[in-house]
Design brief:
The protein is mostly helical and 153 residues long. The protein has four helices and no strands. Helices cover 78% and strands 0% of the residues.
């Protein structure tokens, strides 16, 4: 499967997921009966889906060195877990009926945690790239390459 097909497939899946989320939100209950908590919950679910979709598209389009595996696996896993937790919290939003600020606090905290994990994974991936480059340079300098000749790999 080529890169364009992967990007289009990922985009289609993301758009379908977002469309289904919108349909479920607007077709259940009455629009006039939606509370602020319903709208906040809906906004965070859409945010989680949008961030996950954007990350999938970005990581699919970006060339992947050895550190790409760390970024892909780690970031996509953490964003997927964030999306699932956000969706589950949206289902149980009525438990926060008397404390919408508590619901908002949990959502913001989760978002911050995912952002921190993503930044840390990116830093780890950059360290892997730097280590790989240093190892290649040392191999070249010492002549310990696959060919046995200095400067050839």
């Amino acid at each position: 499967m080529n890169k364009t097909t992967k990007i289009l497939s990922g985009a289609a899946i993301g758009v379908i997921t977002i469309a289904v989320t919108c349909a479920i939100f607007f077709l259940t209950g009455t629009n006039s009966g939606k509370t602020a908590l319903d709208w906040i919950s809906f906004a965070f679910v859409l945010l989680a889906e949008g961030v996950l979709l954007g990350s999938v598209l970005f990581l699919t389009a970006k060339p992947s060195p050895s550190s790409g595996t760390i970024i892909r696996a780690g970031i996509l896993s953490s964003l997927s877990i964030y999306w699932v937790i956000t969706a589950v919290l949206a289902l149980f939003r009525n438990a926060f009926e008397h404390s919408p600020k508590g619901f908002l606090l949990i959502q913001v905290t989760l978002l911050a945690a995912v952002a921190i994990v993503s930044i840390l994974l990116n830093m780890l991936a950059q360290k892997v790239v730097a280590t790989d480059e240093k190892a290649k340079e040392e191999q070249w300098l010492t002549g310990n390459s696959k060919t046995g000749k200095r400067g050839e790999f």
